[in-house]
Amino acid sequence: MGILNFARKASVEPVNADLEAFLQGYSIEVMPRTAEKVEDFTAHLPRGTRVYIAHIDGTPIEDMVATAARLSDEGFDVMPHFPARIIRDAATLEDWVNRYQAEAGVTQGLILAGGVAEPAGDFHSSMQLLETGIFDRAGFDRLHVAGHPEGNRDIDPDGSDKMVMEALRWKQAFAERTDAKMSMATQFAFDADPIIAWANRLKDEGIEIPIHIGIAGPAKLQTLIKFAIACGVGPSLKVLQKRAMDVTKLVLPYEPTEVLSALARHKAETPDSLIEQAHIFPLGGIKTAATWVTENAGSAGTPANQS
C-alpha cells in the first residue's frame, strides 16, 4: 500500500492548457559567452525558436556574428540586438547588418537605445537607427523594439511615462508607413496585473504593436533581485522582496509559474489582447529556463531534437 501511495504522489501533474498555449513560440535571449556554454541548442529549445542575441557594450561584432551563424545553422530564428548608443555611425550600422546577413542569413533585429549612459557616436535612440533606412534597404522583414510595462527612468527621470509613450506613438506610425513587421519585447516583470493594465492602456491609446512580455526564467532569488535592481524593474520588484522575507521560500529557486499562468489565463480570456507571447530572460541559465518550459508547458517546450 505504501508503494502504491508513493506512486500516486509521484505522478505527473496535468499540463496547464492555457500555459501550454501561451508559451507556444516563446523566444529566449542569449549572449555569446552564455551560448558557448551550451553544447547543442537543439537539445533544449523547440525547433525554430526565436533566439535574441544581446549585444553588451564591449562585445566584438565578430563574436556576435559567429553566435548568430551557429544558431542559424542549428535551425533557430536569430534576432541580434542593435543598441543605438554603442553604434558609432551609419557606416558601422550598415557594416553590422551586412555581416549578419552574409555570414548568418539574419533578416531581423531588436532595435533599442541600449543601457549605456553616454552614446559612443551619432545615435542615442532606436528611432534614429530606424530612420537611417538601412534595415529597410537590407531587406530586414522583422524589427522589434523595446517595451517598458513599469516605465523607464532612463527615458522618463520624473517617473512618468510621457517620453516612453511619445516614442511608442512614433514607432506605431513607423509600422503603419512601412512594411516592417514590428513587435515589442519588454523588460521583465514579476506581477501580471500591472503588465495587463499597461497592455490595455496601450490599446486604448491606439498602439497596435504586439507585445512579447519579458519574463525572468528560474533562478536563485538573490540573482533575480540583483538583476531586477540593475535593470530598473519597477513595482513588481515587491513580489521578489516579499518572497525574500519568507524564510521557507528564501532558499528555493524562483520560478515564473504564477506570473506566466496569470498572463496565460488573461490571453485565453482576452484573445485580442496586445499581449502575444512570452520572451524569456534565462537569468538562471539557458538550460534551466528551457527545462522549466519543457516540464511545465507540454508541447511548447519540446526540444528540436525530439520533435
TrEMBL record:
An example Gene Ontology molecular-function term: oxidoreductase activity
Naturally occurring in which organism (per UniProt): Pseudooceanicola nitratireducens
Cross-referenced InterPro entries: FAD-linked_oxidoreductase-like (IPR029041)
Taxonomic superkingdom: Bacteria
Protein name: Methylenetetrahydrofolate reductase (NADPH)
Key words, A-Z: Oxidoreductase
